[in-house]
Write a structure and sequence with these properties.
The chain is α+β, with helices and mostly antiparallel strands. 27% of the residues lie in helices and 38% in strands. Strand 12 (233-238) and strand 13 form a beta hairpin.
């Protein structure tokens, strides 16, 4: 009979009240139900009827202060810090190619040779001239050391010898320009040159990549300029490998790109054979760290007209606790006020709970 009266009252109240906001309507009904429950409990106490309340099963998490981090997540790509397109220093025709794609090369190693026949012929002539000039110089020097002859004759022989030496050095330097050398140590990633092909300065033909010196480059929105800096913690995810690396931001640009309204960040990668240039990478940069923060699952945080709240299990009963939240990351919400160490926050079964309602941990 009591339950019938109780349900009839609820229905009548719901029918009479027509609040515009469904949330407000729900709050009003809960409030009225709680008042009725209190009255029923008081009357049962007065007439000596023992009230039996239903216990609701819930799951809880105990509040323990721990490190809380929030992240800025951006997408970037793997880039080789040393990725060089090698081209000849002078026009010419390819006469020899000494390397192939995939071959390891050292800095300064000759990769290809241009036709230098004319220069080598000039060098041979100059070397012959040098022998004569040097012989004349030595003889003239011996005479001058014996005070024989004039100083002008000695200086003239010396000048001729040195002139030929300068010419030889110049031709040898030109010969070096007919060799295509690797500017870095690495691997031949591309080889487009062919024997007999005419080439010229600036013409790409050989690509050398140092895969042991890789980094991830990404662009971060201007709005994070004050929160992302060199040295920040970062988690690098490479989905195609797959692999995850915990490291630090090695460079954060101080200049905002006027077109994209973003700034560049770089993260150095360890040497690993599976990492390749232009591979996709995801960066999670820690822009906020609280060493001893209280956090709860974001799904446990409820909202009402008065603000945010959670349900806490205290002495076997449900208790509504108002809270203030901060950052949200990885499904956790930082709680700035309202909770303390040891509180048991209800995470499952908090729907339709009422203050003081008996609860049991699952």
């Amino acid at each position: 009979m009591k339950n019938l009266i109780y349900l009839t009252a609820i229905v009548l109240l719901a029918a009479c009240a027509k609040p515009k906001d469904k949330k407000a309507e729900l709050e009003n009904l809960k409030k009225e139900r709680n008042e009725l429950n209190a009255k029923i409990a008081q009357l049962e106490k007065e007439v000596g009827v023992k009230s039996v309340q239903e216990v609701k099963d819930v799951s809880v998490v105990e509040v323990v202060p721990a490190v809380f981090k929030s992240y800025v997540e951006v997408q970037g790509k793997v880039d080789a810090q040393q990725n060089v397109q090698v081209s000849p220093e002078t026009p010419g025709v390819i006469t020899a190619i000494y390397v192939k794609v995939g071959q390891r090369v050292s800095k300064g190693q000759v990769l290809a040779q241009l036709d230098d026949k004319v220069l080598r012929q000039n060098l041979a002539q100059l070397q012959t001239q040098y022998k004569l000039a040097n012989t004349l110089y030595q003889r003239q020097k011996n005479l001058w050391d014996q005070k024989i002859g004039t100083e002008v004759q000695y200086l003239n022989a010396q000048t001729q010898k040195e002139a030929v030496e300068d010419q030889i050095r110049m031709v040898r330097s030109q010969l070096g320009m007919y060799k295509i050398n690797s500017p870095i140590s690495g691997t031949i990633d591309q080889m487009d040159l062919k024997l007999g092909q005419a080439v010229s300065p600036g013409m790409p033909g050989i690509t050398v990549v140092n895969a042991a010196n890789l980094r991830v480059k990404a662009e971060v929105a201007e709005s994070y300029a004050g929160r992302v800096n060199t040295g920040d913690e970062v988690n690098v995810s490479l989905p195609d490998v797959p692999d995850n690396i915990s490291t630090k931001v090695t460079f954060a640009s101080k200049v905002i790109d006027p077109v994209s309204r973003s700034f560049d960040v770089e993260v150095k990668l360890p040497s690993k054979s599976t990492y390749r240039p232009n591979m996709l990478a995801v960066l999670k940069i820690a822009d906020y760290i609280a060493p001893l923060a209280i956090s709860v699952p974001i799904n446990a945080v409820q909202k009402s007209e008065s603000g945010e709240f959670v349900w806490v299990a205290e002495n076997g009963k449900a208790k509504r606790t108002d809270i203030t939240t901060g950052k949200v990351a990885d499904g956790q919400a930082e709680v700035l006020t309202g909770l303390k160490r040891g509180d048991k926050v209800i995470t499952v079964g908090f729907q339709d709970l009422n203050p003081g309602e008996p609860v049991r941990f699952q």
